[in-house]
Design brief:
Elements lengths: L10 E5 L5 E5 L16 E4 L4 E6 L7 E7 H48 L9 H40 L22 E10 L6 H11 L6 E6 L3 E9 L5 H16 L1 E5 L9 H11 L8 E3 L14 H12 L3 H19 L6 H22 L8 H13 L2 H22 L6 H11 L7 H8 L3 H12 L3 H19 L4 H7 L5 H12 L3 H10 L1
Parallel strand pairs: 9-10
Antiparallel strand pairs: 1-2, 1-5, 3-4, 4-5, 6-8, 6-9, 7-8
Helix pairs in contact: 1-2, 2-8, 6-7, 6-8, 7-8, 7-10, 8-9, 8-10, 9-10, 12-13
């Protein structure tokens, strides 16, 4: 009982079932209040400053009572709250400092990155917003340049087709057609080639063209590609919502045969003007069934390979190879495409020039787009680029074939050189070994040192070191950690930090996963040996 007495509880007593005090400490203080409470468990407020606590949980009917000073208790509670406030305040200050330093750790690299990328970076504006604006501006510039390349490619192809058609419209009897609709990717169209022949009289190609124009929707739906004494080759641009456009054309061709005895053959349909040379070849191939079949549909014949099939797949593969900086594959694809071009020159076709030049323009623009994306300085190849475009657009391929092939190969060489493929494995190892113990060292940092893109750096490391960057980095850190464990008294946490690991637990886990022992076990084993 003596140990229980305090300022807040000045008196304690043991009473029997009749409420008589048996023994206690400062029992006299209870005498004025013995009639003021019941012998039931609870707290009874006697006065504003006095309460009595009753506990009946004692054997043989005895109870324990205690006198409670409310003022003293309130004072103790106030002191407890005051000390709690102080602790909470100190915790709040520590949290504030922690957040402050965390923000500073984040802010400093962001500050450096912003000033490296943004030439006129200002602390008055949010760095993230400035970086976002800078990246958006670069992206917009690249998109504008790519759009210019694409528009140039389209305009060149239109002019090439125009130059082919102009010879067939030189007599002035009909105006040169508007071919923009052939290159309109939004319209629902199908392009066909139709070869026709008159058995007796000179072929009435203008009359046939007029009937096609009147029967088909849209302007310039029938274009004259080639005429002869008793034959003509037409290009049909069939627009409109009809689904079976080819079948409707066959009905019209059958009418030509019934009324005027005109033989005809129709190619398969396509939506791309790049396939026009192949369509012409297919229509001419189908005409070999004359006169046994007066109206021949190419699609009804056994399929044959065409010499003028546009190399869409190869051009796409070239784009992907350049994106992956796989120049070996790019050269192989380029060689195959030139073989396609050289083979087509030897074949008879109304549009070989258009076919060949279109492919050459596509090759040149694909490489130029890669150079733009790789941020290769335009001045390092501008003269060569313009000369190549001039050869591709304005000179006969048979006369400039060697120069065109050499120029395009040289453009590819510039891509490879400027992309940094001259970097050796020794240079890569040196740069990694100089910085591998830095916690923030990553493949992005290595790419920045090499002045290459992330994807190119990743491919280059794998090619030169025969393993990916993260595996090589861990190998260096592991060997350094083993050396420090064997030769120093540094703690595991200190060694973890020394080899570039911020999290010691991650280091321990990866170390055990690799060695089969914890760092401490490895040290003990080394000492024993």
């Amino acid at each position: 009982m003596k140990s229980l007495v305090s300022d807040a509880m000045p008196a304690v007593a043991l009473i029997d079932a009749d409420g008589r005090i048996i023994t206690g400490i400062n029992c006299a203080q209870f005498e004025p209040y013995m009639e003021s409470f019941e012998l039931e468990d609870g707290i009874y407020e006697i006065e504003s400053n006095i309460s009595i606590y009753v506990n009946k949980g004692i054997a043989n009917g005895f109870s324990l009572i205690s006198l409670i000073s409310n003022d003293s208790l309130h004072h103790q509670l106030g002191e407890a709250f005051a000390s709690s406030y102080l602790i909470l305040f100190l915790i709040g200050c520590a949290g504030f400092l922690l957040v402050f330093f965390a923000m500073k750790i984040t802010y400093l690299p962001l500050h450096e990155l912003t000033h490296k990328i943004v030439s006129d970076a200002s602390s008055k504006h949010e760095y993230l917003a400035q970086l976002d604006a800078a990246f958006a501006n670069v992206l917009e510039q690249n998109q504008v340049l790519e759009s210019k390349f694409e528009n140039y490619r389209l305009s060149v192809k239109k002019s090439l087709l125009d130059s082919v058609l102009s010879s067939n419209y030189a007599d002035g009897q009909t105006a040169l057609p508007n071919i923009d609709q052939l290159f309109d990717t939004k319209s629902r169209k199908e392009i066909y080639a139709v070869q026709m022949k008159s058995c007796d009289d000179p072929f009435p190609y203008l009359g046939v063209q007029k009937i096609f124009q009147e029967a088909l929707p849209g302007n310039d739906s029938c274009i004259i590609l080639k005429t002869d004494t008793n034959s003509a080759l037409f290009l049909i641009n069939y627009t409109g919502p009809e689904i079976n456009k080819g079948e409707k054309l066959k009905v019209l061709l059958n009418d030509f045969y019934k009324k005027w005895g005109l033989l005809s053959s129709i190619s398969n349909g396509t939506g791309s003007p790049m396939d026009i040379p192949a369509l012409c070849e297919n229509a001419i191939y189908a005409s070999r069934r004359w006169p046994k079949i007066p109206v021949v549909d190419y699609k009804s014949l056994p399929s044959v390979s065409t010499s003028f099939e546009y190399p869409y797949d190869q051009l796409e593969q070239l784009t992907e190879s350049l994106s992956d900086n796989n120049f070996f594959a790019a050269r192989s694809i380029l060689k195959y495409i030139f073989q396609i071009i050289d083979d087509s020159v030897l074949k008879e076709n109304p549009l070989p020039d258009f076919y060949v030049r279109s492919i050459l323009i596509d090759l040149t623009i694909i490489i130029a787009n890669y150079m733009n994306q790789a941020k290769i300085n335009f001045k390092s190849y501008d003269d060569l680029f313009y000369e190549t475009l001039y050869f591709c657009r304005s000179c006969p391929y048979t006369e400039k074939a060697k120069e065109i092939a050499a120029n395009i190969q040289q453009l590819l060489d510039i891509c490879e050189q400027e992309a940094g493929t001259h970097v050796t494995s020794a240079q890569i190892k040196q740069l990694i070994e100089e910085s591998y113990c830095q916690p923030d060292f990553s493949i992005y940092e290595l790419a920045d040192k090499l002045k290459l893109s992330f994807s190119h750096t990743s491919n280059l490391v794998k090619k030169e070191l025969n393993q990916n960057f993260s595996d090589y980095l861990w190998k260096l850190r592991l060997e350094k950690a083993k050396e420090l464990l064997e030769r120093t008294d540094m703690s595991v946490d200190e060694i973890s930090s020394a080899v570039g690991y911020i999290s010691a637990s991650s280091f321990r886990r990866k170390f055990k996963q690799e060695i089969g022992l914890t760092p401490s076990q490895f040290r003990e084993t080394s000492v024993t040996k």
